[in-house]
Specification:
Helix content: 25-40%
Number of domains: 2
Strand content: 25-35%
Number of strands: 7
Distance between the termini: 70 Å
CATH topology of the largest domain: OB fold (Dihydrolipoamide Acetyltransferase, E2P)
Length: about 150
């Protein structure tokens, strides 16, 4: 009887440990949601400090991308002159080009991102990034305002 009780107790403890490990793997305090860019622009405070996944296209420094969405003029933040665009069917947003922004490239066919290489513009780009809001305007990446 003691042996059966011991086995049941070990099984119970093992299940608790597995559940704790699973919770740590899917950290409930750090969300990772796939969103359309327009959602971030429409409600930047909702996404502040959230990690989002964006499945879109590379815009480089292309003003042509901005011309596709004239209603967005003045609604997004640019941190450095090197910031680059990502866009999807709903809009565009800058990715902070500073170091330490925690932007992860999930899918990209080139070795580097070169905003001067027009052959890269329009190429599929999937990223995971925290959202920052500066002066009420969103930008992808953790922004350090002291790094300018």
């Amino acid at each position: 009887m003691k042996r059966i009780l011991g086995i049941v107790l070990m099984f119970f403890i093992a299940n608790i440990l597995l559940l704790r490990c699973e919770k740590n793997l899917t950290n409930p305090y750090r969300k990772d949601v796939s969103v359309k860019i327009k959602e971030i622009i429409s409600n930047p405070e909702k996404y502040l400090d959230e990690t989002v996944t964006i499945d879109g296209y590379y815009g480089g420094w292309s003003g042509q991308v901005m011309e596709l969405f004239p209603e967005q003029a003045g609604k997004i933040y640019i941190h450095t002159r090197s910031d680059q665009l990502i866009y999807d069917s709903s809009g565009y947003i800058y990715m902070d080009a500073s170091s330490g922004t925690e932007i992860q490239i999930l899918e990209w066919e080139f070795d580097t991102m070169d905003p001067t290489d027009n052959s890269q513009i329009g190429s599929r780009l999937k990223i995971r990034s925290p959202v920052s809001v500066v002066e009420g305007k969103p930008i992808l990446g953790k922004v350090d305002l002291n790094s300018n």
